[in-house]
Design a protein that fits this description.
Elements: E1 10-15, E2 18-23, H1 24-27, H2 38-41, E3 45-46, E4 51-54, H3 58-69, H4 82-91, H5 96-105, H6 118-129, H7 133-136, H8 139-148, H9 154-176, H10 194-216, H11 220-225, H12 227-245, H13 253-265, H14 275-286, H15 288-313, H16 324-335, H17 348-380
Parallel strand pairs: 1-4
Antiparallel strand pairs: 1-2, 3-4
GO biological process, one term: protein homooligomerization
Keywords: Ion channel, Ion transport, Membrane, Potassium, Potassium channel, Potassium transport, Transmembrane, Transmembrane helix, Transport, Voltage-gated channel
Membrane topology: Multi-pass membrane protein
Length: 381
């Protein structure tokens, strides 16, 4: 067994034949849980193989182990039902607060105490007897939980709501600035310009939050690999670089366009606190092959049908099909059932071909789309 003072010793966990490894210190972040309490998990230790063995659901355990690694971020795998995942969490005695927040994220009503799973009741009673895990956390871990894991406390949840509100204000401001009538509210002196001052306050908040998250993150390399974190960096840092170097460039049209676009990118951070948006992202990632097939089909149909339509319509008087690229634009409009109406056939042969192409194109495009929809239905359930 691992000694208590050897915090960084590796712990090997065998879950139905699949091996997991982590540090002793990682598990002790939640001492009230089954894995976090060395005394509780002792009976599952195999002296012969020098590892812990659990005859439990392997895919669920992957998410449960990440709960420890991420300082309390609990997310259900998309391919596992909530009932099965809840049973696994109850067995490993995941804290009640984390389970309740997961239910809120997924729109599941909270249960009464008498309806709780026996393991969850045991976890709750032991949590009251044992010291809170927050008392064993370092300041760095507390800051990380405050900024990254809203389910860990009411303060973290309130801060997450406030951050979403500031993102909404920032994006709204970027949109309002493009309205011509809003120019009357601007001032020639930047520090009297309400748009500039509000933007400065919002970006200052984003910068402070970003610095705090960088300092408190457990692994800087993994932090910088996150797409949302990269968006935060490129949305905030350029603004303050120009602010420090030459404030007049902040009023230039080209730079304003770039800043507005970067602020709009912050909308992707909404996915961090929405399970449903995360599902959409996971579906798109799983459907990359289908999407590639979709775009290949579009290109083949556009080139072939556009070329054929060009040769049919090109000889007609006042024909809008003046080139193959123009005809390809018509083909793309037609196959996706959009039809702007800016290019239409004028000959009888062209109209007959258009009617055939509408039916054939819709059927061809629907095949990869159907595959994506089926994946969406499966993962969303």
């Amino acid at each position: 067994m691992k000694m208590k003072n050897e915090k960084w010793n590796r712990v090997v966990i065998n879950v139905s034949g699949e091996m997991f490894e982590t540090h002793e210190r990682t598990l002790e972040r939640f001492p009230e849980t089954l894995l976090g309490d060395q005394g509780k998990r002792h009976k599952y230790f195999c002296w012969k193989s020098k590892q812990y063995f659990f005859d439990r659901h392997r895919q669920s355990f992957d998410a449960i182990l990440y709960f420890y690694q991420s300082y309390g971020n609990l997310s259900r795998p998309n391919n596992i039902s909530f009932e099965d995942f809840e049973k696994e969490c109850a067995f490993f005695q995941i804290p009640k607060a984390s389970m309740e927040f997961l239910k809120l994220k997924e729109g599941i009503p909270l249960e009464n105490d008498e309806e709780m799973h026996p393991h969850e009741k045991q976890c709750n009673s032991e949590s009251e007897e044992n010291p809170s895990r927050e008392s064993t956390q370092t300041l760095r871990e507390k800051v990380w939980n405050l900024l990254e894991n809203p389910e860990t406390s009411s303060t973290a949840r309130s801060l997450a709501i406030f951050s979403l509100f500031t993102i909404f204000i920032s994006v709204t401001l970027a949109c309002l600035e493009t309205i011509p009538d809003m120019s009357k509210y601007k001032h020639s002196y930047v520090f009297k310009d309400p748009f500039f001052m509000l933007e400065l306050v919002l970006n200052s908040y984003f910068l402070i939050e970003l610095i705090a998250r960088i300092i408190a993150c457990p692994d800087l390399k993994e932090f910088l690999k996150g797409t949302l974190n990269v968006i935060d960096v490129i949305a905030v840092v350029p603004y303050f670089i120009i602010l420090c170097v030459d404030i007049t460039k902040l009023r230039s049209l080209a730079f304003l366009r770039i800043l507005r676009f970067l602020r709009v990118l912050r909308l992707f951070r909404l996915s961090k606190h929405s399970a449903r948006i995360k599902i959409v992202g996971a579906i798109l990632a799983e459907s990359l092959q289908d999407l590639r097939l979709f775009f290949v089909c579009l290109m083949i149909i556009a080139v072939f049908s556009g070329s054929l339509m060009y040769f049919i319509e090109n000889t007609a008087e006042n024909s809008p099909f003046t080139s193959i690229p123009e005809s390809m634009w018509w083909a793309l409009q037609t196959v996706v059932t959009l039809g702007y109406g800016d290019i239409t056939p004028v000959t009888i042969a062209g109209k007959c071909y258009s009617a055939i192409f509408m039916v054939f194109g819709a059927v061809t495009i629907s095949l990869p789309v159907l595959s994506i929809v089926m994946k969406f239905t499966t993962m969303y359930k």
